[in-house]
Amino acid sequence: MIKVGIVGGTGYTGVELLRLLAGHPSARVTAVTSRKEAGMKVADLFPSLRGRIDLAFSTPDEARLQDCDVVFFATPNGIAMNEARELLAAGVRVVDLAADYRIQDVAEWEKWYGMSHGSPDLVAEAVYGLPEINREAIRGARLVANPGCYPTAVQLGFLPLIEAGAVELSSLIADCKSGVSGAGRKAEVGALLAEAGDSFKAYGVAGHRHLPEIRQGLGRAAAQPVGLTFVPHLTPMIRGIHATLYARLTADVDVQALFERRYEGEAFVDVLPAGSHPETRSVRGANVCRIAAHRPQGGDTVVVLSVIDNLVKGAAGQAVQNMNLMFGLPEQAGLGIVPLLP
């Protein structure tokens, strides 16, 4: 049984990790940290976990994280980079759900995240945890950088086209919408019901922190830099990301067949039949990305629709998927969850 520690167990990704791991056949949560809620029963803060998680929150110092086999950091940016080294030295594997190890260019990371990196030497070792492109590297990794939610939806949507050399790389467009849980579990005026409800807005048009991460991933697939316009939007829903992606074709390809071939055998990417329009509710609570590819009027523009649950395939579910790979478990272990409807 894999002993699991979670640093930062009171946020949305933390409680989602707890939900998924509570039903995992080969993993057991042995420590959950929170400085603010130390001593409180996890199930008292999250009643949905009553009878499933019989632990209290502890401070990081008290948690004996070095006794764990793997530790998930479900913390704000800037925490894992200062705490991962000690755990790695103790033989603990680490999965960081924040952005500390996602961007390989440390100077670029520091520019976008506004702080000095605490362990730049570990950045080169960190494996980017998108299993659909890095599965074998993840299996042998000590340190995994779990992808962001927008980057997961966008990269999975664009990858088949880029890998096939079928689109113009200088003018990719990602028009993305997210539920308010993507902002995290914190008091913030913009996420209040009276502020976000019955409204819809773009944000970060001049530049969003996920932009360099997406460009890095797509550039690796293309073996050259790509030009990407990325515009995120906030929608009045709790969970979900809908990415509408645009690219100009440079080859006359069967787009549907291309996507079906690329993701054949992938447990967590579902290519829908031609003409489909995936909905965010079709992935709610599940670790799956549903994709539909369109070529409107048979022209040279391809439109890809990619939907995920930002807290599952966009965060905690993908982290568990990575853990499964790191420990030689079936990739679907603990993740056979049917999406919630309605």
Automatic annotation (TrEMBL):
It is found in: Cytoplasm. It comes from the Bacteria. Pathway: Amino-acid biosynthesis; L-arginine biosynthesis; N(2)-acetyl-L-ornithine from L-glutamate: step 3/4. Coiled coil: none annotated. GO terms for biological process: L-arginine biosynthetic process. Its main location: cytoplasm. The active site is at residue 149. The keyword Amino-acid biosynthesis applies. SMART domains: Semialdhyde_dh. It is an enzyme of class 1 (oxidoreductase). GO terms for cellular component: cytoplasm. Residues 3-141 form the Semialdehyde dehydrogenase NAD-binding domain. CDD domains: AGPR_1_C (cd23934), AGPR_1_N (cd17895). Keywords: Amino-acid biosynthesis, Arginine biosynthesis, Cytoplasm, NADP, Oxidoreductase. One of its GO terms (molecular function) is N-acetyl-gamma-glutamyl-phosphate reductase activity. It catalyses: N-acetyl-L-glutamate 5-semialdehyde + phosphate + NADP(+) = N-acetyl-L-glutamyl 5-phosphate + NADPH + H(+). Its EC number is 1.2.1.38. PANTHER family: N-ACETYL-GAMMA-GLUTAMYL-PHOSPHATE REDUCTASE, CHLOROPLASTIC-RELATED, N-ACETYL-GAMMA-GLUTAMYL-PHOSPHATE REDUCTASE, CHLOROPLASTIC-RELATED-RELATED. Catalyzes the NADPH-dependent reduction of N-acetyl-5-glutamyl phosphate to yield N-acetyl-L-glutamate 5-semialdehyde. Belongs to the NAGSA dehydrogenase family. Type 1 subfamily. This is N-acetyl-gamma-glutamyl-phosphate reductase. The lineage of its organism: Bacteria, Pseudomonadati, Pseudomonadota, Betaproteobacteria, Neisseriales.
